[in-house]
Design a protein that fits this description.
By secondary structure, the protein is α/β, with parallel strands linked by helices. It is built from seven helices and seven strands, in the order E-H-E-H-E-H-E-H-E-H-E-H-H-E. The longest helix is centred in the middle third of the chain and has 24 residues. It binds 6-[4-(4-hexyl-2-oxidanyl-phenoxy)phenoxy]pyridin-2-ol. 6-[4-(4-hexyl-2-oxidanyl-phenoxy)phenoxy]pyridin-2-ol binds next to helix 6.
């Protein structure tokens, strides 16, 4: 598998620290021989990413700033990628945001501002990024985003992010339809709960890990490496017949009532 992604340029958005899903994905892609481009929003994330890459002896093709809530920022980032790398074959969208105070209590109390912010950062961002990525995916390619079961079913406290992820998963299907004619595939990985910096923003996160370990068919939780390998699969030619799909990497938990 160490040459599955040889010669492939892949953009990874959303490495915040060593616990990030995007960092697990990075390690899987690197092991498969991919050339990596990273985007980051916060300076802190850039510092963490730089340290992680040095420690893992991964030399990136490029590291660029990109705020996925800002169209100009996305356009500038992909212009720089086009100028310095040329074409890309894969894109990992692993970014989302909602106000912490909208991630507990009752969904009925969600503010209009909080709802739009979650949609903007977590769902529309894929549409804007896919539009720019398409322009430099001239050999075709694969786009993978990250979702969670709360998009499909009510998960207490996930609230406004659940509705944003529902929009994200529907966007995966509509983007798959639009981009298929350019041989660009669009899919999502829906992972079980994993302890990341973002997970700290969702009330009740700690309680749910225990439930998964008890009830999931595999009787355990999943980790970043399993999300990394499933995302690598969806980015690689091994999934060339798959698009518009949501692949659950959750120890089977989603099949349980
Ligand atoms: C009770 C639900 C437990 C399972 C939640 C699994 C999960 C964990 C993290 C997820 O990603 C985010 C990303 C941003 C986000 O918004 C945040 C995160 C930290 C602080 C803050 O102000 N907002 C919340 C969750 C996500 O979409 C899903």
């Amino acid at each position: 598998m160490n040459n599955l992604m040889s010669g492939k340029n892949v953009v990874v958005m959303g490495v915040a620290n060593e616990r990030s899903l995007a960092w697990g994905i990075t390690k899987s892609l690197h092991a498969a021989g991919a050339n990596l481009i990273f985007t980051y929003r916060k300076e802190r994330s850039f510092q963490k990413l730089s340290a992680l890459l040095f420690e893992a002896e991964i030399t990136p093709l490029l590291v660029v700033s990109c705020d996925v809530s800002d169209d100009a920022s996305i356009e500038n980032a992909f212009l720089e990628i086009k100028q310095k790398v040329g074409k890309i074959h894969g894109l990992v969208h692993s970014v989302a945001f909602a106000e912490k105070d909208e991630l507990h209590g009752e969904y009925v109390d969600t503010s209009r501002e909080g709802y739009l912010l979650a949609q903007n950062a977590s769902a529309y961002s894929l549409v804007a990024v896919a539009r720019e990525a398409k322009k430099i995916m001239t050999d075709g390619g694969s786009i993978v985003t990250q979702s969670y079961l709360g998009a499909e079913r009510v998960v207490k406290n996930y609230n406004v992010m659940g509705v944003a992820k529902a929009a994200l998963e529907a966007s995966v299907r509509y983007l798959a339809e639009d981009l298929g004619k350019y041989n660009i595939r669009v899919n999502a990985v829906s992972s079980g709960p994993i302890r990341t910096l973002s997970a700290k923003g969702v009330s009740g996160f700690n309680d749910i890990l225990g439930t998964i370990a008890e009830k999931a068919p595999l009787r355990r939780n999943v980790d970043q490496s399993e999300v990394g390998d499933a995302t690598l699969f969806l980015l690689s030619s091994l999934s060339r017949g798959i698009t518009g799909e949501v692949l659950h990497v959750d120890a089977g938990y989603h099949i349980m009532g």
